[in-house]
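Pipeline run #58 for the internal structure catalog. This entry was flagged by the ingest filter as a single-chain record with no existing model, so it goes straight to prediction. Upstream metadata was stripped on purpose; only the residue string is passed forward. Reviewer on rotation: M.T. Logging verbosity set to normal.
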Amino acid sequence: MNGKSLIVIVTYNSGNFIEDCLASIAEQDYRNWQLVVIDNDSADDTVQRVRYFRNQTTVLNAENFKLIHLRKNIGFARAVNLAVFSHIKTVHGRKEGKTTDVFDHLILLNPDIRLLPGALENLTATFEGE
């Protein structure tokens, strides 16, 4: 039920709303995910807010969360590819090259979204025919 998901959020000057987005993910009952936030060289305090939120919660940790802060804005599509491929490299590089995670779903979220309770569970269940 509800296979493992890789959630990717690409940010750019998202400081006004990124914490609400992250909180809505952290509040989900469905927790079978890993989250990658990739910042496209924001000029505001987006990265600091992501780090602050990460340090204020036990839901996001080294096992399920990664922040990538780019020094150049490479656009949305390239940022998604970078987030996915760098995460796959990290996963494959653990434990002597053994794959530790297989993802059934890739979920792309905009940083200004706030998920309703049960949203991730409902989304993944839809793709699993439940």
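catalog note: The first strand starts at residue 5 and ends at 11.
catalog note: The mean pLDDT is 89.
status: ready for reviewer M.T.
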